[in-house]
Structure formats: structure tokens, C-alpha cells
Amino acid sequence: MFQDNLGGNSKTVMVATISPAADNYEETLSTLRYADRAKHIVNHAVVNEDPNARIIRELREEVELLQKELKEAQVRQPPRC
After folding, report:
1. In angstroms, how far is CA 50 from the centroid of its own chain?
2. What are phi and psi of 77, to 5 degrees?
3. Among residues 73, 17, 13, 21, which one has the least CA distance to residue 43?
4. What is the structure's pLDDT at 48?
5. Quick one: which of 6, 1, 78 has its CA closest to 42?
6. Sign of CA dihedral 73, 75, 78, 81
7. What would the pLDDT profile of 44-62 be if each residue is shown by its tens digit?
């Protein structure tokens, strides 16, 4: 239940406000229990990226790598007569 509400693609901060008054014992205990459960929520935020933009970026990186490998292979090859 908590994970859907507090999780997601962002950082979440939990602030538990409690009272030292004896009259608020039950409410303070409830708040502390809630805060204890909430601190176990694990968030895995990811960068929002357009799938097409990601593919284009990956292809450009691959082209750059292949061009570098081609240049290195040409340098290692002896000249043809």
C-alpha cells in the first residue's frame, strides 16, 4: 500500500511529527509505527527518456565506437602495394 503512494519516480521525504505529551501517546505511537514502515520503502528512480531518443543515442554511441575501432584497425594494417 505505501509503496504505490510514496514510491514512484522521485525522491520522497518522510517527516514524522510527534508529541511528548502523555495525552498524545497513542497518536505518537501510531505515527512512529507508520514512519518505521515508510522507511523500508525502496525507490528506484529512473530518468524519463523518450524511447526513440534512447535508441538514437545508443545508435550514435555504437557508430562512434565502430568508427574508433575502424581507425585503430587501419593504423595496425600495413600499407598495400
Report:
1. 16
2. -80, 135
3. 13
4. 79
5. 6
6. positive
7. 777 778 999 999 999 999 9
